[in-house]
Amino acid sequence: MQGMGILFGGIVGIVVASIFEKTYPADTYLGKPLTYVPQQADYVWPIILMVGAIPAALTYYWRMKMPETARYTALVARNAKQAASDMSKIRNNSRREMQVRQDEFVEECLRTLAQAERQSIEAEH
């Protein structure tokens, strides 16, 4: 994920710089060295910094909402009741997902059997 962030940061920098270059054209350096960089260039880096702060802020928010592991809660925070509650939530979700998958599998098997039965009846006639 870090590599994606580095890649995305470079892309954002290039996009913002190209938009800036099209919006505020500048003279060539050899022509007029004092006006080579427009005054509006000071706005490019804060924009890139603000765009880069968005994923960081979202990551911080999500990590603050993420519960601690049951082991940490039980051993370090000394709250075994909360640890048991967290683990029961995880186990219930896993069981529900498994039950849904099993139900879907059974339905698919029944459909396949019914279709095979229809085909065998049609083949007899």
TrEMBL record:
Transmembrane helix found in the keyword field: yes
Stretches that traverse the bilayer: 43-62
Pfam family name, one: Sugar_tr
Location relative to the cell: Membrane
GO CC terms, sorted: membrane
Keyword Transmembrane helix: yes
First-listed, main subcellular location of the protein, grouped into a coarse class: membrane
A GO term for molecular function: transmembrane transporter activity
Keywords tagged on the record: Membrane, Transmembrane, Transmembrane helix
Annotated protein name in UniProt: Uncharacterized protein
Organism of this sequence: Quercus lobata (Valley oak)
Lineage of the organism: Eukaryota, Viridiplantae, Streptophyta, Embryophyta, Tracheophyta
